[in-house]
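Hi there,

I know you've been waiting on this one. I reran it after we fixed the sequence typo, so this is the corrected version. Both the input and the resulting structure follow.
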Amino acid sequence: MNTANLSRTETRRRSRHISNVAYRVELDLRSAADAQRDSFGTRTTITFDASTEATWLDFIGPEVLSVTIDGTPVPVDHDGSRIQLVGLGRHNTVVVDALGRYSRSGEGLHRFVDPVDDEVYLYTQYEPADARRVFANFEQPDIKAPFTFQVTAPERWEVLSNRSGNRSGQTVTFEPTLPISTYITAVAAGPYHRAESTWSRGTLTVPLAALCRSSLAEYFDPEDIFEITKQGLDFYHDKFGLPYPFGKYDQIFVPEYNLGAMENPGLVTFTESYVFRSAATEAQYEQRANTILHEMAHMWFGDLVTMEWWDDLWLKESFADFMGAFVSAHATRFTDAWVSFANRRKAWAYLQDQLPTTHPIVADIPDLEAAKLNFDGITYAKGASVLKQLAAYVGEDAFFEASRRYFAEFAYGNTTLADLLIHASAASGRNLDDWAAAWLQTTGVSTLSCTGSAIEQTDPRPHRLAIGLYDEDSEGNLVRVHRREIDISAASTPIELPSAALTLLNDDDLTYAKMRFDASSLATIESSLDRVADPLARGLIWSALWNSTRDADLDPTTYVEIASKFAGSETKVGVASAVVANVQYAIDHYLDDPDTASQTWISTCWSQLETSDPGSDGQIVWLRAVAAASQASDARAGQIERLVDGTLPIEGLELDPEQRWMLIRSLSALGHTSRASLDAELHNDKTASGLNSHRAAVAAQPTAEAKARAWSDLTESTELSNDAVDATVTGLRAGGRRDLLAQYDDLYFDAIAELWSTRSIEIARRLVVGLFPQQESTDAADAWLSAHEWAPAALRRLVIEQRDHLARALRVRRAFGQPG
């Protein structure tokens, strides 16, 4: 039995016997700068009451040195993930001395060495259950406790945790936390660059800090981060009726991070990709703001009130995802944040919800492996979409009143779906049981269409739906001339609508559903999409076109043609970026003979790059599009070479290091650059980003030797960090060279079970997904699944999902006469 994979059943049993828990955690990180030392000292003192004589603590580390119960040493019984405790009394004090291991996978206590200055940086990441890689604990969200951290580290380092601390020499002792779950405790240490501010409201003052690596300080913009942070704190303070409860509010941007961010109270961690070393668009700033506000929502939805088990992960993630967009639109400069939500977040949800592994928003999560993979488009984006519909259904005032009542009753406690529904029903005056059954406890996405006399929907559900009719105004723009908001629930709902050039179902994006256009509306879109004035309406149209393409309802060549005609005039840069990415995916996966479409698209990208306003967001988007489109075609290779060497100037475009690497990787995939040239480029950019860009470019080279080296690095070595794995996979797959990669198909299916059992789940997931072969049939995947019914459910889920993506691509090809 894999005792590291905790089950819901056994943790519920443990929580019935354990109460009144408190922790003191002492970490000795003085060895962190010594590359020869892979472990650190960790001592945990836990006091708790027990109604059983025996239980266990969770700990994953190289060695447990000693265990004492009430001052008496007891034999160490540690199987690698659990420490057995026997002979417990009513009141207990357990002390565990152990060694933890520094991580390179972003799980537990991650150690990073900055190649710029050889400085060492540490940070923790625990969700859902990796605190046990740092200290012994009861690793489950429903055993909340106060934590006192004491960290010994080099004296010149910043040392941070959830609370403020007092330093004495090399040791920092932090104030006890409020009762929180293990997975949101946090520690960071290293010579981080720090900026400070404060936020105040009435008698409450919250110290703010923003931190990043010292070598990134020149790119850091804490003023914008603080502005969004203060706007968010203002909004939540007013709407939630309960002041921010966790003292300080530090936000730290860390290297090699697996997530966008993590809501540790008092010490929120973010990927340092939000420190924009390269030219960034307004859409990237909007995404960062959304993430800041998403994590801030967790201070209430998740940290203050926490789900009992991972089945109800949506109680925090769906709410935070919804609030990120809502607060962006209502309290920051990003007033059209719902446009990005419709195209970026909901696209993720629609994709996930059509996989055979889809699950209800309130999911059945029997164990931790299932929980790890449940941080997906259903839990986040579909849940947020459904909450947006709920807010429209019951009204925003009732929605926030329900939130305030929920926080007031369950502060510092744990909840389930039923607890939330009681307050939502009371605040709105509506019985929400049927709504919850239809939206939270089912799977799948409805498709809406209008026949002229009825609204039709597949997979019927109740929707609050707005229908918009668009016609030309006096200036030739397509504007909404009629709007009707209705509730539908049946497969067919009769309706009479005036005629219009364009009928847009789900106008204003009130519900969660795909749309299909009638023939007249589609003709209007194909001729006049750029004349639709409202950015949200355009975004919904682009989303519907892409869903139709994925569903083999719209010819992918038609999608490419529409994008080639209109993507350049899309003023919402986030929408333009999504369209550009979708076109490239369609060319790479949905066209068996993509040459004509590819050449058309490359010409479009290059033309847009040359004609975009100098220094504009559009210029950034189209440069990225050129790099992506050119990996499998050398039509513009000569011009890209001249861009890189500076002999082809384009006004407003001065390549920064990351843009150079992006273009160089494309040239490398085409065989237009040498290893020596790549090494010379690295010599000029010996940053962490540069090292991984170099790794990707080397793996991209179209030679058997380069692919073999990359395959070996990924599957035979355990030396690569999480980001290095990503870079190597990206390079290996650059250009889609099946002539070079087909030889690894059988090796992939032979290797993945062992990779899953021997690598951390984070690294294994990247390998299983990233290396899945793009074959001409699903036979090999089907054979593996048939022969591996015994494989862990989480591994099977990943293979099933990749197999389904392949099957969809093959269906689209067949639907439009493409071979395959």
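Quick highlight: The longest strand covers residues 39-50.

Best,
R. S.
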